Amino acid sequence: MAVLTPIPAPVAAPAQAAAPSASGPACPIQRVAPEGAPGRSGSLWQLGIEAQELTSAIGQLAEQLETDDPEQRALALAELEAALLAEEGNKQALSAKADATCWVIEHLRGQAAYRQQQAKRLSDLARSDAGRADALEESLVFVLTQLQPSATRFSFPNHELSSRKSSAVVIDDEEALDSEWLAVTTTTKPDKAAIKEALKAGRQITGAQLLSRRSWRIH
């Protein structure tokens, strides 16, 4: 099975950031100083290290979202939001943190797509395995019941093959059945397409409203 690569660094650097751990960020998503401020070299080396540290810290916050505890999830999201809001007025720092967040989002979506592919592959393999097992079982039962037609159970050194009797109705021709043997079911659902057109035309419909949403995409 292929192994997923770590979250790539936005800027190439000689060393990769340490892998995230569930215990919390290795470095806080601290306020990034403006370019030219003391402690910031502005070199590609330093920018690369800072980008990796941000991506690593945000990735570790994302790991905390795996919990079923809504309070812990809310705290993790609040920490990220606070880190972004702290850069109000510092466009460069806000951009750096937002870009690092986008890297983590893209990594997680890529990982989700990979796992979906793997799930489909495993599902196909499982279906194939089950099909082969069923075919072998049918063949085995066919041979054994041919040899012992009256048997309802077969015992082997390590296994036992047993049977039980059941009955099921098979409908050969539904059209040929009298109405007394037919069950009538009625289902309804809102006609959203028609409702949408009516609302857009200005009609007021009790129980329905038209909401406008804006969708976002990272590219």
Annotation keywords:
4 helices; mainly alpha; flat; single chain; 3% strand; 219 residues; two-stranded antiparallel sheet
Furnish the topology, listing elements before pairings.
Layout: H1 44-63, H2 70-85, H3 91-147, E1 153-155, E2 160-162, H4 192-200
Antiparallel strand pairs: 1-2
Helix pairs in contact: 1-3
Task: Give a quick rundown of the structure.
By secondary structure, the chain is an all-alpha fold.
Could you tell me the strand content as a percent range?
under 5%
DSSP strand count: 2
Topology pattern, helix = H, strand = E: HHHEEH
Number of helices: 4
Structural class: mainly alpha
Distance between the termini: 28 Å
Summed over residues and divided by their number, the pLDDT gives a mean of 82
How would you write the strand order of the largest sheet?
A: 1-2
Low-confidence stretches: 1-27, 34-41
Largest sheet: 2 strands, antiparallel
User: How large is the radius of gyration?
Assistant: 31 Å
Question: Could you say which overall geometry the principal axes of the C-alpha atoms support?
Answer: flat
Please bin the fraction of helical residues: 40-55%
What would your notes on this structure say?
This protein has 219 residues and is mainly alpha-helical. It has a domain at 7-154. Helix content is 47%, strand content 3%. The protein contains 4 helices and 2 strands; from the N terminus they run αααββα. It has helices at residues 44-63, 70-85, 91-147, 192-200, and strands at residues 153-155, 160-162. The chain has a two-stranded antiparallel ribbon. α1 crosses α3. The longest helix has 57 residues, at 91-147. The two termini are 28 Å apart. The model is unreliable at 1-27 and 34-41 (pLDDT under 50).
